[in-house]
């Protein structure tokens, strides 16, 4: 999950680049350039801070991460059964290939004896 510190940092970086683009497009002088980048980055910091605090305050983790244990275990059991079937079919193919290799070896040995 996206941690709240990372979310706030992400918003600050996005605000910095948006402020940078805004300042470049308006061709401000250097002081106004830095000031506008700082103000826009600060606004995005405040927006990120409010949104992450709202999420932490009003959304409980159980609502977001509640799992149905029985359904999950059933799905895992089905996947294990499918893997067992595939493994058995691969073993059969392996034994079949070994038999063919043995037949080829015996036929080559018979031809060499002739």
Number of domains: 2
pLDDT < 50 runs, ≥5 residues: none
| Oligomeric state of the chains present here | single chain
The rough form would be described as: elongated
Global mean pLDDT: 87
The beta-strand count equals 0
Give the count of helical stretches.
Answer: 4
Spatial extent as radius of gyration: 32 Å
Note the main sheet.
none
Strand residue content: under 5%
- Classification by helices and strands: mainly alpha
Distance between the termini: 71 Å
- Give the % helix: over 70%
* Topology order in helix (H) and strand (E) letters: HHHH
Which features would summarize this protein structure in a list?
2 domains; elongated
